[in-house]
Amino acid sequence: MKGRFRIIIVGGGITGLAFAALLAKSRQADTLDITVIDAAARPEYSSGEDISLRVSAIANGSTELLNSVGSWSAIQEARMSPYSMMRVWDENDSPDTGSALRFTASEFALPQLGFIVENVLIKDALLKVLDESNVSLQFDTKIESLPDADLLVGADGARSFLRDAVGIKTKKWPYEQTAVVTHLTPERKHDATANQRFLRDGPLGMLPLADGRISVVWSTTPETAKHALEASDDELGHLITDASDGVLGRLTVAGPKGAFPLAAQHADDYVRQGVALIGDAAHAIHPLAGQGANLGLQDAAELADVLVDAIEKGLHPGDRPVLRRYERARKGANLTMLHFMTGLNSLFATDSRLLGEIRLAGMRLFNRSGPIRERAVKVALGVK
Fold it and tell me: How far is CA 193 from the centre of its chain?
């Protein structure tokens, strides 16, 4: 077996950079020639700039991964917002009833449930780690044909060039929803609480930011989203205040706004000979539970472990039987989460009075389910 293997990672987002860092910090780093290629400019974070529009809810398990490669400390020293409570309720209910779901960090003996972190900050922290390694970073580099490598890793998002180039098909489930994202200043303090209200047209997520504002992801009809983008800041603030049922008082727009269409997507195969897909290139899910970034990081960790183990056993990291170990470990879990999020979104997006009553009864039962509730929350938090 030859001494060094060429690994090319297509995509310099959170998942691709984390995977590169895991390999660069692995026991087999000396046997790997690692390159990250991305068509976009290198992302740069500046503490002097406002909190960026795109943020992720990073689970405790994901912070352990980021800490293992040496990037979490830079994130902590910059800015992020821990949240210690989460509330979920139906539009026909209120957040303080027995059928509303409430989770607190203290009931799981945790200092926090997770952290709200800017995507650009996570990428910047990972890049600082990679700058100190032998990983080659090639931003502003568009690939139009498949480069030569022992292993090509597609981390280039839901519209993956690599996935399409090797002929891997996907299944798509359109939600007929568009996510409106913006930052707002609440009249009442958010108290480090992540709030989510399920509306007939889609869920409204309100995530706490370190400076007292909230980051909102409002999944709604394309028509309502278009109206929201065209509305004045004052009108948009009123729209989201009404959608939130005023749980944090009046909301005032205090940041940029944007929107993106929503759809679930899943690759028929995660691997081919010499090719592996991770993150959104393999699977894209509804943002209602904030699991997208965490699932991508879990993919990165699993694939890195599989490759290191294979090399130590004298196997080639690009061989399909090796890569199938990664696929078997992640495909089922990702598909289960995708269908769960899709089903949950559909369950709440109905006018049926009977289904509405069943929803509320189910949420009350879940609140009292003891070990089932505890296990479900721990899976979402990425802790054991």
Answer: 18
